[in-house]
Amino acid sequence: MSLRNRELVFLIPALILTTLGFALVYTQKASSLTWTSLTYGALFLVLFVIAHLGRRVLAPKADPYLLPVTALLSTLGLVVLYRLNEDLALKQAMWLVVGLVAFLLVLAFVRDLEVLRRYRYVIGIAGLLLLLVTAVIGREINGARLWVDLGPINFQPAEFGKILLVIFFAAYLVDIREALTVSTRRVLGVPLPPFRYLAPLLTIWALSMALMIFMKDLGTSLLFFGALLALLYVATGRFFYVLVGLVLFFAGATLLYFVFPHVQTRVDIWLDPWQDASGRGYQIVQSLFALAAGGLFGRGLGEGYLTLQSGNTIIPNLETDFIFSAIGEELGLVGAVGIILLYLIFTYRGFRVAVRARDDFSRLLATGLISIFALQAFLIMGGVIKLIPLTGITLPFVSYGGSSIVANFVLLALFLRMSDRAA
Amino acid sequence: MDRPLRRLFLFFALLFVALLVQLTYIQVWAAPKLKTNSANTRAIEAEMKVDRGTIVSSDGVELAVNHVDGPYFLREYPQGSLTSPWLGYNSLRYGRAGVERVYNEELSGQTGLLGITSYWDELLGRVHKGAALKLTIDMKVQRAAAEALGDRKGAVVALDPRTGAVLAMVSYPRYDPNEIDTLWKELNADPDTPLLNRAAQGLYPPGSVFKIVVAGAALQIGALTTKTEFDDTGSVTAGGFVVNNYGDRVFGPHDFTEAFAKSINTTFAKIGVALGADNLASYAGGFGFNEDIPWPLSQAPSFFPEGGGLDKAHVAQASYGQGEVLATPLQIALAASAVANGGQIMKPYLVAQVLDQNAKVLRETKAEKWLKPISSETALTLRALMVEVVKNGTGTSAALSGVQVAGKTGTAEVAEKEPHAWFAGFAPADDPQVVVAVLVENAGTGGGVAAPIARAVIAAALGL
Question: Is residue B21 included in any domain, yes or no?
């Protein structure tokens, strides 16, 4: 089967699952099956077939698995949102449409990745500004300054800022790669590249620390730093940089732990949420209860104990950060493992794009983008299941959030563009 | 350059594997503990979503129903406190008691009796429906008993001696199960113990109603007949202990029938001492003393000192139900039921049928034999003695026109207080359909206080 048709075929299970999911939730709510429930499925059939056709024209040789995986994740997220809050699901559906438009636009206008490399500094500065803008005019939600109020839309600039910065890192590392590998000086027996090359990297370290301090955004800070280390490692092939990076990060994080109470709280709650199960540990404790209630096969869509009579969710931020808990309760271990495997497939295909890349820039760009993607999925899933301390970030394609959805569709478009060139 | 990429992918793959391991740990391994964690209110929520089975009386009165509040079913007890001693409560905060506790599996639909339909409902996400219960309680009798007892501390038990089906069980003071969550602390601290079902858990000196057991033993052993002559001089000394009659009465020469009808303590003390501690203990055990009564709800076993452990003085006192002997009203009713049912005590029961949502009977309680302390001949003889009590003896106020009542009164003396009033009886005497035991704490004589209550209950049970 040709690559293009393979994608189309793989979209089918995604659409069947979506239609089934909506039908299930709908019957749960209205206790009868009507055509309305099925129109959602039809709607997304049309949307993703358009995306598929657009991709067919604009990037004919691109990876055939990424779009179906995205379709599954995003529509599954939509089904769960629909079950939790119909208004949010409607908004999310609109954002999905916007995301798919952005996806097609990127495929249409970014025909050559060299454009991105050429404007690396503009992109880098834009990314930096997007990150920092919230520190100046941002609104604080849930103890973190991540949001910019644009009239009716709450915009989360960091979602886009991180993609732009990864583009910059990748381009910049291509520039200084030689210098990093051919060390000229040794300090304490350790080979060090010239300071002028090292400086931007230290800046990034400082930036991620600043993110933690001023925006209280542990998640994004971790993402940047992780992506940077991954890039350094792949660019130079030296584990040494990773080591230095980790030491720097943990040194910074330890310092922050003792200086800033919100970092300390996060870690303490992770270590023992039971000490304050109805207070600071409430969210994670309720998340664990939800997962336990789900068990192996889940309680079924619409059957979980997720919302109160008032419509409020029992776990705060269930629609965004904690959507994985909702999936764990209603679809069980089986469903949650399915989600993890989908991210694993996406990550694998992403790395495949990097391996097959024909030039250094796309290889590093693919590495950087797949690293933040995989890391983000890991950080938030690991956070809600108490594997690691909780960092408030979205689950890519699944969580509610316009900025996140659109940014991730842009990321998807970049991957398809890169894989098209690599093929 | 491929090697770092491969290693990096491996690193991320390992992170995802860590997620899988932790998730499996939480959702499978740690799940049972998390589910029962005290901070976890999900179990309560799940319980509230169950359409708990209704409970009705044998005459079709709704005793426990649900009212629907959104997706939740909240338990309601239309009869209020009237049913609380045995119906109990189903509290989300304080657990369950009574029938609600013992039959929780059936009521909440966890029983295999409901078969595949229950699993099917779960699979389809339908409301989980529990099985309904039909009790043996007859609310006409229950209400009559509660009214007759009024607000005097005590208990009334009525049962069908032929089957063991409990028709009424009243205990006072009691509580409104609808208010259990708000009254919990108060009820537990109350010195009058309203949470205690006095009928099955209250232990009292039985006084002269215990003479049913002693007479049964003496007749069964053949130590005497109804015509055996005695002489009462107002007192008798046994082991240095002086036994007097109630009210210090002197009866003179009399036969055993009269001794039983007039409840002559001195005569029974003599009989008891003649029978000996071992015989008394063995017959008390035969009637159910020192045994757990085989019925589903909470109960306290009645007490008679094991044989050989009693000196003459204590044997004499035990012979008229004083001293160390303790009995529950339910036990006394069962002792009387042996007389009413040809010597055979049936196992008492409260739940007649377990039904599914379509009123199909899933399980029916069959009458089962329990103890047979005396032969049917002895039972008939004893029955005649008990008829005489109501005709010409201490229990005349239990008499009903048109139906012959048999019974025995008891006036159990307690230190520094009014005596407990007892009555145990049945009717009609020639074809007993209902046995009644009445206890009123510190209220006076059995004949004066308890017998009229028994009469009202018997009248209600026989539809008079």
Answer: no
Length of chain A in terms of residues written:
423
CB contact under 8 A, B27 and A336: yes
Asked if the Cβ–Cβ distance from B15 to A374 is below 8 Å, we say yes
Do B299 and B202 lie in one domain? The reply is yes
Question: Which domain-ending residue is among B118, B135, B152?
Answer: B135
Verify that B211 and B110 share a domain, yes or no.
no
The pLDDT of residue A212? 64
- The structural domain count of chain B equals 2
Q: ∠ CA B9-B13-B16 to the nearest 5 degrees? A: 145
Strands B154-159 and B166-172: antiparallel
Q: What is the dihedral of CA A265, A268, A269, A275, to 10 degrees?
A: -110
Active site residue B337: no
Which residues span the domain enclosing A52? 3-422
Examine the domain organization and report whether B173 and B82 are in the same domain: no
Q: Which residues contact A178 (CB under 8 A, 6 or more apart)?
A: none
Spatial distance between the Cα atoms of A32 and B79, rounded to a whole number of angstroms: 38
Instruction: Give the end of a domain, one of B106, B135, B164.
Output: B135
Place of tokens 């009659």: B245
Q: Which range has the top average pLDDT, A227-241, A316-330, A392-406, B445-459?
A: B445-459
Assign residue B269 the CATH number of its domain. 3.40.710.10
| DSSP conformation letters of B279-334 | HHHHHHHHHTTTS--SSSS-----B-PPTT---HHHHHHHTTT-TT-BB-HHHHHH
Residue B18: inside a domain: no
Give the minimum alpha-carbon distance from A181 to chain B in angstroms, rounded to a whole number.
13
Shortest Cα distance from A131 to chain B (angstroms)?
Answer: 25
pLDDT tens over chain B, length 464 residues: 488 899 999 999 999 999 999 999 999 998 888 887 777 777 777 778 888 999 999 999 999 999 988 778 889 999 999 999 999 998 877 778 999 999 988 898 876 666 555 555 555 555 678 899 999 999 999 999 999 999 999 999 999 999 999 999 999 999 999 998 889 889 999 999 999 999 999 999 999 999 999 999 999 999 999 999 999 999 999 988 999 998 889 999 999 999 999 999 999 999 999 999 999 999 999 999 999 999 989 999 999 998 667 888 999 999 999 999 999 999 999 999 999 999 999 999 999 999 987 888 989 999 999 999 999 999 999 999 999 999 999 999 999 999 999 999 999 999 889 999 999 999 999 999 999 999 999 999 999 999 999 999 999 999 98
The total domain count for chain A is 1
B127 lies in which domain range? 44-135
pLDDT band at A154 (very low <50, low <70, confident <90, very high): low
B415 CB burial (10 A radius; 0-12, 13-18, 19+): exposed
pLDDT at residue B309 in the model: 73
B153 and B300 share one domain: yes
CA distance B48 to chain A (A): 12
Measured between beta carbons, which residues in chain A are less than 8 angstroms from residue B26? 288, 291-292, 385-386
Q: Do both B78 and B170 map to the same domain?
A: no
Within 411-450 of B, beta carbons closer than 8 Å to A belong to none
Using alpha carbons, list the distances in angstroms from residue B254 to B226, B264, B270. Answer: 11, 10, 14
Q: Does residue A249 contact residue A205 with C-beta atoms inside 8 Å?
A: yes
Is the Cβ–Cβ distance between B398 and B452 less than 8 Å? yes
Question: By CA distance, what is A305's nearest residue in B?
Answer: B42
Domain presence at residue B339:
yes
Q: Between A296, A303, A374, which is nearest B12 by CB?
A: A374
Mark whether B296 and B154 lie in a shared domain: yes
d(CA A158, CA A222): 13
